[in-house]
Design a protein that fits this description.
Layout: H1 3-17, E1 21-28, E2 33-37, H2 41-64, E3 72-77, E4 80-86, E5 91-97, H3 103-126
Antiparallel strand pairs: 1-2, 1-5, 3-4, 4-5
Helix pairs in contact: 1-3
């Protein structure tokens, strides 16, 4: 299974545990969709781009106020919630939820899923290259 498939599986399991979650996506910190469980792919791209913008403000705000690194952002609107959680050092998990969701449970489950997604992404980045290097030769940017 690919990293995208594994992340999508985690998003599905999260939505199964929290039926009031109406959409879920994992994205890079700069807004690239890694995997999503939303009704429309276009919506996922739009939400990921907006998440990246909000993340930029959140990072500056936590830094300026001495609150440390970004962990999560919760927005409550008239029709529900948008919640974003760190998913390792380079990605985020963004969830859309109905207004009747138990916010404490949302945080609990999303933090766990964010950590898992971060591990999956890190694992995908650490996988060895498909082309093995020749033994006892240092890697070179100039080629073999």
């Amino acid at each position: 299974m690919t990293a995208e498939g594994e992340v999508r599986g985690e998003l599905r399991r999260l939505r199964a545990r929290l039926p009031q979650v109406t959409g879920a996506l994992a994205a890079s910190a700069d807004g690239l969709v890694l995997a999503s469980e939303t009704d429309e792919a276009k919506e996922a791209e739009h939400v990921a781009a907006l998440t990246a913008a909000a993340l930029g403000v959140a990072l500056r705000l936590t830094e300026a106020t001495g609150q440390g690194g970004f962990r999560e952002l919760l927005i409550r609107g008239e029709s529900g919630y948008v919640a974003t959680y760190a998913a390792g050092p380079t990605a985020v998990l963004t969830l859309l939820a109905e207004p009747r969701i138990n916010v404490g449970r949302l945080h609990l489950e999303a933090r766990r899923s964010g950590a898992r997604i971060g591990e999956l992404i890190r694992g995908a980045l650490e996988r060895p290259a498909l082309v093995p290097r020749k033994p006892n030769r240092p890697p070179s940017l100039a080629g073999p």
